[in-house]
Amino acid sequence: MDFSLTDEQVMLRDTARALLAKECPPILVREHVDDPTVALPLWSQLKDFAALGDGPCTDLCLFIEETGYAAAPGPFFATTALFAPLLAAIDHELLPAVLAGDATGTVAVAGADGQWTPNDEPVKTFVPEADRVDFVAIVGADARVRVVPSADVSTRHVRMIDFSRRFFEVDTAAVAGAPAAELDPATLTNLTARATAALAAEMVGTSRRLFEMALAYAKERIQFDVPIGSFQAIQHRLAECSLDVERATAAAQYAAMTLDAEDPERFHAVHVAKAAAGNAATRSAKDSIQIHGGIGYTWEHDLHLYLRRAVGSEYWLGTTSWHHDRLADLLMPI
């Protein structure tokens, strides 16, 4: 495998960074807490990249890593990492509109236990951005998929630690009779793996943001007439944090490559990626707030915006320990 980025991928990454730095500053993430509509102009910019949802996972992850760095709110992740790949799998007529950025969507799979496995429960949990998208793809028992307008289902906002990504409970009872498409369970497993790899990449971006904020503060905060970054204890924290972020970056990129190649080890790689990203996110969140000291605990400081995204993402699509357990099942089947 060639792990170097192509010229086109470098351009994609740099374009994402420049776009998000301009269109998604911390003030937008902060204002989104009270008014989700402030993210609408951001979507008008990001929708030009909606076609990544049906492209190589490596390209999608490169772009989504930068949305994680910015803690970008809005329907981009739900539409490109969840909805578009599912539409492509069932050859749905909405796919061209979604890839063109003219329609948005999300996916409802999990039941009361929060696990992303097909079930016949009418109330779906942990459905991202359900009130702001145009369509909801409901995955029922036997992996049957119903794509319905979001206005046809009942939603209830569930307040989470992460204000930048909004989750909902969706009652699908009213659309139980909607036409359904058959989806092979193995295909659904692949789609879930792709979404998990994308989330791992996003978490890498958020972890990198937290680390860079801690590093910058350690250079400028003066204590005993010297920067606190000169203290060995701070240096050790930053070094360990940097190693975790680099490890997670490599794991997420490798997982995306194995998915594109349909490698037999792709599910192993995805579990490793999400677990590594979880470790990086947890350490970056903990160490960054420790290094910032008292100011890091205040609402006025921007640190909590990214800390919330890191912690919230750790608990979505499987925690670190859950992915370790699934990896153990693959390596040591009973």
Give a written overview of the molecule.
The chain is 54% helix and 11% strand. The protein has 334 residues and is an alpha+beta fold. The chain folds into two domains: 7-182, Butyryl-Coa Dehydrogenase, subunit A, domain 1 (Orthogonal Bundle), CATH 1.10.540.10; 185-331, Up-down Bundle (Butyryl-CoA Dehydrogenase, subunit A, domain 3). The strands form three sheets. Strands 1-3-4-7 form a four-stranded mixed β-sheet, with helices on one face. The protein contains eleven helices and nine strands. Helix 4 (57-70) packs across helix 7 (185-220) and helix 4 runs antiparallel to helix 8. The longest helix is centred in the middle third of the chain and has 36 residues, at 185-220. The mean pLDDT is 94. It is globular.
* Helix-residue proportion: 40-55%
- CATH-level-4 superfamily name of the largest domain: Acyl-CoA dehydrogenase/oxidase, N-terminal domain
N-end to C-end Cα span: 32 Å
Question: Would you tell me the structural class of the helices and strands?
Answer: alpha+beta
Beta-strand level of the residues, as a percent range? 5-15%
Label the CATH architecture of the largest domain.
Orthogonal Bundle
Strand order of the largest sheet: 1-3-4-7
Which parts are unreliable, with pLDDT below 50 for 5 consecutive residues or more? none
Element string (H = helix, E = strand): HHHHHHEEEEEEEHEEHHHH
Tally of individual domains: 2
Based on Cα principal axes, name the global outline.
globular
